[in-house]
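Complex 121.
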Amino acid sequence: MADIFVARSDDLEEGGRVFVSCDVGDIGVLRVKGKLHAFLNVCPHQGGPVCSGMLIHRVEEIIAEDKTFQGMRFNENDINIVCPWHGWEFNVETGRCAGDGKWSLRRFKVAEKNGEIHVTV
Ligand code: FES
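Predicted structure with FE2/S2 (inorganic) cluster bound:
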């Protein structure tokens, strides 16, 4: 395993992202709700630059007790990253595809220490 310097902590603000290239490929590092997430910048669908996609709250259906559909809403807790090529969405906490859980982004360990962000590949 190798430790790769990504950026200074001050250079990655909330909701932001930075990219680093290494032997494994391009890795996107995002700060969401104060937590860092690192993924290979390759979508499992057709290889799109998934880490450059927009961040949105997960959309969920509102179902009443009688099982009738009441509409849609944004889930305030779950945030997805949307691949810019075809719109597949992935949960930033798990990397799992929102539409089909058998697909996931490749995650990397990311740590912040002494004002620097590093990933382990
Ligand atoms: S390549 Fe990402 S959704 Fe198709």
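The pocket of FE2/S2 (inorganic) cluster is lined by residues 43, 45-48, 50, 83, 85-88 (CB under 6 Å).
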